[in-house]
Amino acid sequence: MLKKFLSLVVAAAVLSCIGCDRLDDQRIPPAPVYIAFNTVGEWTIPGVGVGGAMDYSRFIKEERIPSGYHYTAISATGFGGVLLVCDVNGNPTAFDLACPVECKRNIRVKIDTKAMVAECPDCHSTYDVFSLGGHPLSGPAAQDGFGLRRYNVGSANGLYMLVSN
Known about the structure:
By secondary structure, this protein is an alpha+beta fold. The chain has helices spanning 2-18, 40-43, 139-144; strands at 33-37, 56-59, 76-77, 82-86, 92-96, 110-112, 117-119, 126-128, 135-138, 150-156, 159-164.
């Protein structure tokens, strides 16, 4: 698995050098994002937060995904939902789940756990969310230079972690 992952990283680096000179990660319309974790314990609950490198979780408020997260009136999960990941170094990063090629709320990328990339089920574009910040690797997204919309992850106002736009 590591060998396949490393080959994808190298391929993405090569594509970025010879491909389009700019990344369009603003195709998904801006939408409010507010996902708050009060403690380290909340942040690392399996299936809710992210516990370490290469871990991920999906947040879709209207569908109550993940079911273990306590959504509040001020919770918001972007245009198509939020993909929260820990990159290969264990740093948290967040992306909108909506595929930037399709630009529809209900067409969401999913993690291919064998290749460890995010993939659109419709256009089959793949994105590196664990080391290249949502850059496209293949499919129409790579051809057109469409990356996943990123959101902020950090601490604020006494919260352990906050995902926001």
